[in-house]
Each structure stands twice: as C-alpha cells, then as structure tokens.
What does this fold into?
Amino acid sequence: MRRIDELDFIQIDGVNCCKGHVFPFGASLTGNGGINFSVNSTDAEGCELVLYHSGDRDAFAHIKIPDEFRIGNNYSIIVFGQDMDSLEYTYRFSGKYLPEEGYWFDPQKDLLDPYAKLISGREVWEQSENAPMRCRVILDDFPWEGDRPLEIPFEDLVIYETHVRGFTQDPACRIKYKGTFRGITEMIPYFKDLGVNCVELLPVFEFDETQNFLRTKETPYVNFWGYSTVCFFAPKSAYAVSGPMALAVDEMKNMVKQLHKNGIEVILDVVFNHTAEMGRGGPTFNYRGIDNRTYYHLDEKGNYVDYSGCGNTVNCNNAIVRQHILDCLRYWVSDYHVDGFRFDEAPILSRDTEGKPMQSPPLLETLAHDPVLAKTKLIAEAWDAAGLYQVGSFPAPDKWAEWNGKFRDCVRRFVKSDASAGPELIYRIQGSPDFYQDRKFHPTVNFITCHDGFTLNDLVSYNEKHNIENGENNRDGSDYNASWNCGVEGETSDPEIEFLRNRQVKNMFALLLMSRGTPMMLSGDEFRNSQKGNNNVYCQDSPLSWVNWSNKEKYPDVYEFCQGMIRLRHDHPVLRRHDYYTAPNSSGYPELSFHGVQPWNLNAWEHFHTFGFMYAEPAADFHTKEDCFIYCAVNAFWESRVMHLPELPQGMKWELYLYTADRFHGHHEQVGTQFGLMSRSLAVFLGR
It folds into this structure.
C-alpha cells in the first residue's frame, strides 16, 4: 500500500481521489485512510459515485469516475478524507435509455451497489417507507473468537425453519428483543430444550418490507417474508435492535456465533431467482439501472421473462451473474460463518441464458465444487413458478440436497386416510430410494409443512384455504393442500375433534422424525401454531403470521411429544443412516423392515391404511451402549386396529415409548405381543 504522499491525487467535486483497485468489488478500506469503490457494467457509457452525509437529503459530492480509471467494464476509484461512520453512497450510470432493447440507463437515478455490505433507509421496520435507500461502508472487525461453521453431517440435523421477525414478535413470547437477530439469540435455550440443532431462516438479506403493490394508506400489507431481495450482501437492517447501522452486521454475526456455541447450525434461505425490481413497472434499485441486459432474462422486445412468478428472472448462468452469486455465497460463509443455504425456486439456477433447462448447469457445478463452499450445505427447492419440477432429478452433483415435496404430499395424503398413498410411503420412509438411489447420500430434506402453505395445525383444521385477508379475493396461495379439517372447518371447542386433531398432528410429526433423510419442521408446529387457515401469509405482519406462543401452554402434550420424537432421533443412529441399506445387519434382522397387522406380512403393492415398520439397531454396528429395536405402528384407518408386534431376540421386551392417543407422555410401560391402536393413531415401541 503506497503512502498518501506517493499517490497521484486528483480532486473531483472537492474530494481527493485517485485511481482505484478492481478487487474487491464493492466498497472497502484501503489502509491509508482511503475508501476503494469498485463496480462493473457491461453496457454503461459512464459511472458517477454519489456521496452523502448520513441523514442528509442532498449529496455533498458527485464524483464522475474518469475514463482512465476504467479497466475493461470495471469502474474503480479511491476517495480520501471521508468519515466512514457517517458516509453513504450510491452510483449513477449513463448510457442508452431504450427499454425495448433492454437498456435502462438514467444518469439522474441513484442506484445501490450490488456488492454493498450494508444498506441504510430501512433501519426501523415499517417506519422509514419514504427514506432513500443508500449504501454504507463497514469495518470488518467482529471478534469471532475461533468460531467457524459447525459441519454437522446432514443426516444428524433436525432443521427448524423460522422467520426472524415472526418467530418472536408475539406478546406471549417472553424475550426482550422481539423480531430481531438478538431475539433469535435469546431463543437458544428454547431450541436446545426442543432438541433442534439447525435453524433455517427465511430471507435475511436486505429487502424493503414496505414494498407491496397492494399496500395503501388503508391497508397494512407488507413484504413480510422478504422474498424480494434488494441487496444480496447486506443483512436486513430492521432485524437489528435500533441503534447505529453497523449493529445489523455485528448482531447477525453474534447470532451465528452464539448459535454455534450451542451446537446449532444456521442455514439461510436465499433468493437468486428474482429480485425486488419486479417487472417493467417495478422499482429500480440497482441491477436494472446498472446492467439490465446482463442480470435478467429478456425477450426480443426487452420485456422481462418471468419464470419466478415475481415479475423478473435472474440470468443465473450468465458468466458475470454466476460470479456474482458465487461471490455472495462465499462472503456469507467466510464473513458470517453460515453453515448452508436453501435456494428458493432452484430450477431457475439450472436455466441457460435462453431460459432453457440444462443437464449440467455451470452455476450448480461451480457451487458444488467451490473450495470455500466445500463443507457448506446446499439445499434446492426443486421447483419453480414456470412449472419446472425437479424433485429427484435436480441437475446437480451429489453435493446438493433437495426439499422433498413428494414426501410432504405423500404423508399428508396417508395420514388423512388415503390408502393409495400407502405403497409410496414405504419409499418415503426409506429416504426415497425410488428416485435418489443413485446418489451417494440421502439428499432428501423431508418436510410436511414450511412457511409456504398451511401450518401443521391448519392441515388438520381446514379443508380450504382462507386467504381473504390478503386482499386478492382468495386467489393467492395453493389450492392443493391435502388437508382435512377433522369434521369442523376452523377452530372448535368440541373435545373429540380436538383430541383427533392432536393425534393427527402427532402422527405426521412422528412419521417425519422416523423417516430416513434430514427432517425439517416449521416453527410453531410443535404446539399447533395456527394461521387461521391462511396458507400464504407473505404480506401479513400481524398475529396471523407470528408464532402464537400462548399455544405452548395450551398444547403441552403436543410439545412434549415433539420433544420426545426429536430425542429419539438423536439417540438412535439407525434412524439417521446416510445411505439406503435395509438388508440384514449383525442382529440377523433386516435393518429396516415393513409389516402389516401381522409381523412380516405386508403387501406393499396394494393400498393399505395400517402398517408397521421396524429398525434393528445392534450395538456392534452403531457403537451404541446396547442393542435396540424400534417399531412404529401406524393406523390411518377410521376404526381401531390390533397390531401384532414382531418377535424380539430372547431376553428382549417391547416397551411403549410414545403413543399419539395418549393425552400425556413420559411413561415407558412394557407391552406384550400385541397392541390396540385407536383410530387414526400411531405408537412407537422400543425393544431392549
């Protein structure tokens, strides 16, 4: 680094400047009192750096970057004499304005740096709608104290999907910093008590919660979920406790650090398939005004091609965009120590620059083999809004896992007494070998509910979606939910229906935790959180979308059951085996076997309502303290059934571990060779 007195200064609009460095992209400190700015545009004819003092409406400097500072398509410059704590910046680009050809350059439009590490203007949730969004410069000096990603094996995870704000905003949630990164940190004792060891957060990259095209002065609609990213390198500033802007960076890093100290991984939900700029009528934040033809899929008339259902589609396999995404993920792993990513509408990442699906997409292979991401978990939502459904066929190397939507649909159908789902359920319990058997490990992330759709409670309480409050005449959200209201639509005080709903919730949760693969649960399902039948609360910031913590006291048996099932999974490695082995092990029994009402007697090709499955876990194979057998008896029929349990090796006896028809849990009574299952119930037995 050259000393200041050795540099060739020029003064532009009263600011001392010199030629900058191409790398790193974005804004960075140079070490000699300067700040380096570096940004790229393929089609621009000029670039201006605009500097503001924090809180001021007008800029104090407009620095047109000299053409001699440009290298290729990169504009870089170093500025001196600036206080980074009070500095904000944007860019303006000049060039053609021909939207019909894909050019959107406007030299009067302030644009956000695509590599900005922090954004101002939305620091307080919903209270800064009219404030301009600008970029900030940060100092990376967080004390990590030796922390790094945990690298817990995929098969050992129990993933807990939640929303930073909605998880703790409810008045009944007894923490201090509601709706923030610090609030998630405060909830660590709860995560440990429940037993989950991985938190998957809905989008935490900067977004504009006030951006909702239905929002008016009379309606409260917001961009609640955050699936409209403004800047992919910046944490959501409103998720920090009110204070200096840099708190958003440090508070999120501290959240990750504290979760790691307690053995809990962090997975981020990332949205690289579209941006907050929407379609042609949407706002311009950055990409459209910087390099529209590079970043988006466009047709021959300059219109946005929409595979995402959100107005635009990111051109992910363009070489420049591909590098941008890789840089982003590397940044979050290296600078925030996150453990993995879930990719929203991931098939878009497999489309070529013409929008056609590829067999070997460069982006997916690049991410799978990148050295920085080598131990990072990559999870695909393997379907997009344009109808490309790739569950079981996502075109990526073995590094990638998938949200298994087929598991979700199959379990929902079977538990509500659809016998035709029975034969398929056999495969789902095994880890879906019918379409994953060529993979090296279980790539399936099994789930029954997620943020998008009914909660587990609403699956057993509503036959139809109830989304009127979203303002779209109930047209939004999925019409296919495979739900059953147990006889009454919505809330009821009927004790028998409530008892049935409790059983159904527990039935589904038990099947999730007893299946091979990686289980993922939705926050609040462990105590029957409800969204009143709304299966698409994307625009709701209200008790409708918040986790209702009073339900934890209302449904203690459901919570304790979920606790017990998670504990069972952690205690028994046979449930977490990472391959598809089901043949006999050293116990002499098949490691995973399926049964009818009579042991060893199930026609898995015919429809059925009632069955059992058994895991054999010999200590010699799994390095446990003792041999164990685990048997799960399942009755999805509307009448009771007597299940005959398989015979155990001499000296071993069956004991009841959990039963979904028990109103209370915790006893471990021995049972004989048969057990009566109530209608629509499930029981788990341990043979010791």
